[in-house]
Amino acid sequence: MPPTTMNIFISYGRRDGRELAMRLRDDLQRLGHSVWLDTNEIPGGVNWAQQIENAIEHCDVALALMSHASYESQWCRAEQLRAIRKGKRIIPLRLQADSEIPLTLEHLNYLDFTDSVRYDALFRDLVSDMTSGTAFNPREDTSTSPTPYKSNGVSIDNRNADEKRDAAAFRKVLRDLRAEDWLGARAWWPYFVFTYLDMPTLVETLKQGELRAPAFTGKAKGRWSRYVRFYFRPRTPEAFFAEGFGPVNKRGAHNGIMAYLLFDMEAVLLHTESRFSNGNPAQTGKTYKTASYFKELPFDRIYHDGWFTADEKDEILRLREAQVLLPEKIGLEALQLIWMRSQGEYETLHRLLDAKTWQRWREKITRRSDYHLFNNKRLFIDRAICEAGGVWIRFNLPQREEDRGPFVLQVVAETEDGQKYRWQQDDFTAVRDLRVSFPTEKSPYKMQVLINGEQAYAGRYTGKSIVLV
């Protein structure tokens, strides 16, 4: 799907940011966005400050180019402060490794544009970030419009997904919920339902264009495994135990690479075949269907996201597993975002998808880290750089000592002429950074990292640069 057209304001220091600012302007305009720069947007005789204020007022995204000059510029600081005060979404871009970050932007994650060689890849990340952000804007009132969603479920084969009869009542509950002050930073949660997948299942789902219940992928048995499950929130207790690679000597099912799929809540919830629960239905044995029951769900507990007392523990953990269920399989028409955990896993998905499938879904795929969807408590690959003669790997270091090993770690590279190089350690203990060398010189190669026999990363060295294309 094409990205949403946006109004973009670029704040930069003229002395060292002009070249990148103009390049970004030209590339963003080619994608159809409207971009405002003070180099050529202010006619003679017009109040300069007022024009900047108006541009910020009407922008959807403000790009703050952080450089030596912008740090010293009072105008840049004023632009940043105004954008913050107006509630605009700000994406900082760092131009120099030693440039200071202004206090107004300290709390924001930034994109690292310090390496001009990687501009194309970084520009794609920027566009992905901007596109992903639009999904958090409140929906227009759809109380008189049908939800644009169809299901391919076996039990409702070839039927359009008409809405529930009490759809208007559901929407009122959602409007009231989204206005609750106690949501705070979780204010965007009630616009989505969440499900998480391991990498093989994600690849198959995107290729097939449908999401199947566990029973139909051979991953589970039982009554409830025949339903596609969505959660009202990320970071459920089940996800906590499933996320990341566990040591080889520890039992348990782990999703080494894990991605969240975010679906439009109204589209899923208002489907005539959908049901919902106030906990894991495999444990509660109950599901509900009407708006009157939905209104009674204790969302302050379902969305609870802090510490709790021993007396509260059982109730809160149960409610964090509250779900929306649809039978057998559904299409991806209501899919809004595919949220990867790290740059390394984003690149791996890119490598595992064929070109056609990647182009179909790429605008929905993000690896943003400024929203807390993942627990990040176990081992996974944060990023990797394939270069001449080897690969540099940065791991997410497990928080607990008992989760830091041992692992069976394999790194395999194959050159274009079929030569293979393998590095393996059977008792690997997690470290932050690892460098593995190959006698590949400058030959292009593809490579993969396996943890306990499961793919943890897939990448490629082109022989010319480290950029994945």
UniProtKB/TrEMBL annotation:
The molecular function terms in GO held by this entry are:
DNA binding; glycosyltransferase activity; nucleotidyltransferase activity
- Annotated TIR domain ranges read 4-130
Every copy of the DarT domain together lies at 115-373
Source organism superkingdom: Bacteria
Q: Which InterPro entries does the record match to this protein? A: DarT (IPR029494), TIR_dom (IPR000157), Toll_tir_struct_dom_sf (IPR035897)
**Keyword list, A-Z:** DNA-binding, Glycosyltransferase, Nucleotidyltransferase, Toxin-antitoxin system, Transferase
The UniProt annotation puts the region (Disordered) at 134-157
Give the GO biological process terms.
signal transduction
Pfam families per the record?
A: DarT, TIR_2
Q: Where is the composition biased (Polar residues)?
A: 143-157
Similarity annotation: Belongs to the DarT ADP-ribosyltransferase family.
This protein is called DUF4433 domain-containing protein
